[in-house]
Amino acid sequence: MKKYYLHIGTENSGPFDLEEIKIKRITKKTPVWFEGLENWKYAEEIEELKSVFIVTPPPIDTFSKITSNPKKVKKVKEVTILGLSKNTFFFVLTFLILLIATVVFNSYQEKRDRLLEKRNHKTEIENNQYVIQQKQINEQKVALAEQERLETERVLNEKKQTVNNRLIVIQNLLSINNENLENAKAKLDTVSGFKLFRTADEKQEQIDVLKNEINSYLIEIEILKKESNQLKLELEKIH
Questions:
Q1: What global pTM score does this model have?
Q2: What is the pLDDT of residues 158-198, one digit of tens each?
Q3: Which of 46, 79, 82, 164 is the most buried (most CB within 10 A)?
Q4: What angle do CA 236, 238, 239 make, to 5 degrees?
Q5: What residue intervals traverse the membrane (predicted)?
Q6: DSSP bridge partners of 31
């Protein structure tokens, strides 16, 4: 048999069977619960309890006032706006305002997001362009440095070749001048000791000519040696 629990005032009571419920004199709004219900329900929501409700009559004073002072109740005409009741109109109006505000806000937010995305995309493009430009500049610097290095190396090689060629020329000139110097010394010895039919002045003139020639060769040899030494120093610096 089903057992019922009642909530009257601030207390729960029960369990009661149907006959005991009838004695309790419950009303339609009395909270009731029985096993199987998820939550409490009013008694009027339970089919088998509809026959046990107590009908409470209105106070007799109300009846007396109505019979003693019978006045016609004037029916107040309900105010309508655009065919809608006042409350309904303002509810619909509030809803439309919120809807429009939501649409406007979403539109603004989307526009702002698109603008931000466009700016980010532009910034990304500019950053990529900057990176590419810096890469090109670095490549140009590397190429220019390599070109300068090759040009410097070419100039040094040309200078080295020029110095070496000049040293070869100097070496040949030294050989020639040394040979001419030896020949002039031999002639001087011959002229100084050889007796011919000539005057003392003629002999001295020949000796002077040969001595000048020897001095000229010595000076030339000295100049060539100094130049050779300077060129060799330059070669050491180039290396």
A1: 0.42
A2: 999 999 999 999 999 999 999 999 998 888 888 777 655 56
A3: 46
A4: 65
A5: 89-108
A6: 42
